[in-house]
Design brief:
single chain; 7 helices; 27% helix; seven-stranded mixed β-sheet; DUF3097_C; DUF3097_N; 19% strand; four-stranded parallel β-sheet; 267 residues; alpha/beta; DUF3097 domain-containing protein
Length: 267
């Protein structure tokens, strides 16, 4: 049977709680027992090192109620390390912490579909906001000539277009030739779909499957990989979740997107 030992100390005799203060560097405190006063220069393994105004160092345990801060008794605790800020964006550009998005330019970048737009945002989103570049998707390139005509590109409103499977002799290459001009740049990658521009190793597969002509490519890929083939949207979200930086993408896509950003932001 456990014994019961109630605390019979009168409440007026119990020590009052004191603030817990992070031992941040340069915080000036006084150690209660010795009266040593100095600035915090180091905090580790339950101890704090103080430096007084003469440059003398003393190490003290961070005991409860062990220090005075501006005359008040406090308990020093180890400070919480601030999370390191990324120095690079997902595209590999130098990060600009706290940078505000620029007002959108008149120029635009068009991509074929929603998946293309989501991938570009995933990797280049920070850069595009700083540059004020808006990315929109077309849902295919068949109507690109009329879309370009409606956009009315100009030197101060350039249009860049990213096309899937832009290879010689393809339908896409013929359409691109119709709209290319000094103020319109159409570039593309050789892949049937932007899914293929994600490195297989990043997705955890050996290679992207070959799908016979005449079959829906995304459905065929899902079947070959054993993924639910009736929900290609879920498959894409899985693929997109594995992309954390430009290192997860093939060079054939990286170079083309960078080319478009440079084109629409040129003076």
């Amino acid at each position: 049977m456990r014994s019961y030992n109630p605390d019979l100390t009168p409440s007026w005799k119990k020590p009052k709680p004191v603030p817990e203060i992070p031992a941040d560097r340069d915080l000036v405190v006084e150690e209660v027992a010795t009266g040593f006063c100095g600035a915090v220069i180091r905090c580790e393994a339950g101890t704090v090192t103080l430096e007084d105004r003469f440059g003398k160092h003393r190490v003290f345990p961070m005991e409860p109620r062990g220090f005075l801060l501006e005359g008040r008794v406090v308990t020093l605790v180890r400070p919480v390390a601030a999370p390191a800020r990324p120095t690079r964006t997902a595209s590999g550009s130098v990060a600009v912490p706290g940078a505000r998005a620029r007002v959108a330019r008149a120029g635009r970048i068009y991509v074929e579909g929603r998946h293309d737009a989501e991938l570009v945002e995933r990797v280049w989103g920070d850069d595009l906001r700083i540059e004020g570049v808006v990315v929109e998707y077309l849902e295919g390139v068949d109507d690109l000539p009329s879309i370009v005509a409606d956009f009315a590109p100009a030197p101060d409103a350039r249009l860049g277009v990213l096309v899937d499977h832009l290879v010689p002799g393809s339908k896409e290459s013929r359409i691109a030739a119709q709209v290319t001009s000094p103020d319109v740049l159409v570039v593309g990658h050789p892949y049937i779909d932007v899914w293929e521009a994600v490195k297989p190793s990043s997705v955890g597969i050996r290679a992207w499957p070959r799908v016979p002509r005449g079959q829906d490519w995304k459905t065929g890929v899902c079947r070959a990989l054993g993924w639910p083939h009736d929900n290609t949207g879920a498959a894409w979200q899985h693929i997109l979740s594995r992309v954390t930086s430009y290192k997860d993408l093939e060079p054939e896509l990286l170079g083309r997107v960078e080319e478009l950003i440079d084109f629409v932001t040129a003076p």
